[in-house]
Amino acid sequence: MPRIARQSIDQVRAAADFVEIVGHYTQLKKSGANFMGCCPFHEEKTPSFSVNPVEKVYYCFGCGEGGNLFTFVQRKEGLDFAQAVEYLADKYGVTLEYEETSARGEAERRRRERLRDLLERATVYYERRLWEGKGGAAARAYLDARGLGADVCRRFRVGYAPAGWQKLRDAAVGQGFSAQELLDAGLVVPGRRGGVYDRFRDRIVFPLADDRGRTLGFGARTLGDEKPKYLNSPETALYHKSEALFGLHEAKTAASRDDRVYVVEGYTDVLALAQAGVENVVASMGTALTEQQLKRLARLSRELFLCFDADAAGVGAMSRALTLARRLGLSLHVVRMPEGLDPADYVLSGAGAEGFRELAAHSETLLRFHVRLALEANDLTRPDGRAQAFAQLKGVLAEAATPIERDEELRTIADKLHLSEESVRYLVSAGAAACTSSRSACSPAVWRCRPKGARCLAAWTRRSSRPPRRRPPSAG
Ligand SMILES: [Zn+2]
Q1: Domain final residue, candidates 362, 378, 411
Q2: Closest residue by Cα to residue 373 from 407, 423, 322, 422
Q3: R_g of the chain computed on alpha carbons
Q4: What's the CA-to-centroid distance between 160 and ligand 1, angstroms?
Q5: Distance from the CA of 89 to the center of ligand 1, in angstroms?
Q6: Which of 362, 389, 423 is the last residue of a domain?
Q7: 120 and 75, same structural domain?
Q8: What's the rounded Cα separation, in Å, for the pair 305 and 66?
Q9: How far is the CA of 352 from the centre of ligand 1 (A)?
């Protein structure tokens, strides 16, 4: 990659509003010439994080974390230096200039530019095939049957990849692109007897764009029963599956205005919600949110509302998301969709944007969602059921974003497990850790093989609903 020119870096530094950037992570208050707030790098209750708005540097008197505008963005967004400069340039409208460090660097830059151009042309090509001519009739009928109007489809640049083996290939070659470039863009597949053929055939295509709206790849859905139902671009120099979020570009403005983002699973969920007037929506194209996706979402808002099917598979995926989100300082909520309905079905069934927002207003935090699930999954009338539930909850509670949130859940758990709050508090602390650490679930067997004095949850829930009178001996 070519180096960013020195003067461009200076321009970005001059254009960026550092107080605004830091203010996205922590509340700042003017204090003399500087601003003070609670440190976004460590947990604290009294502000020790100082920001100098002129020099654009920061320092935390609590944890010693310090640096400048660029290191701040690098640390908080998980970017390298060049990416941090590009991120800020994009945010503050600075056009970057690059130094050509080598002929190879320049060739690589040109190659990527050609790929972008090719992907843009492919997007336009698919759009035309959808709206013009007979070929797209079945695709238009499908969208229509799903209740998705032409306006919203055009806004998201939905298209149709025609049937036939080399339609797109021929059009691109006619415009001067090579078979290799088509392969590099992920638009074609190598044929068995040489040559290439179109990857997407007789499918509705959804452009997967970056946050500036530039197409990086496509997701494609069949119209019939062919397998697979969904086919995506392969990994390319531009498209990375783990980062892809459908609708990111369109969701940006509304997300920062409403300070929240709804994350749904499918393309049509995004379209249906946007059409209804809920515009801060992106599709993750799967329930397992990746770290890269969460980082991109974190730039839009700290408040993420997950609208996934609450099936078992989704829950596992969400636990990982919870851990990641906590590290990124994100707050995750779960919007429970009515049984058997996805967000598209729901808004189109007459609920509309208002109905959807109403559901979101009753969302629960991801932590509460997990707690409820663990409590519901076990038979709490039996001691081993309670022990099992508790073993599951210990890990979940460790992921609470704040002590207040944790305490709230502790109370719920204490109530459901017929224990006092103090008992629960004690059991999630070190004493109980000793008896569950070697197994995923605490059992009397584990208890018995532990050194004398170790307290076991199973035994505890069986015997007592009172806290220990004094601190029990430490569990070896
Ligand atoms: Zn700090």
Answers
A1: 362
A2: 322
A3: 27
A4: 51
A5: 27
A6: 362
A7: no
A8: 32
A9: 44
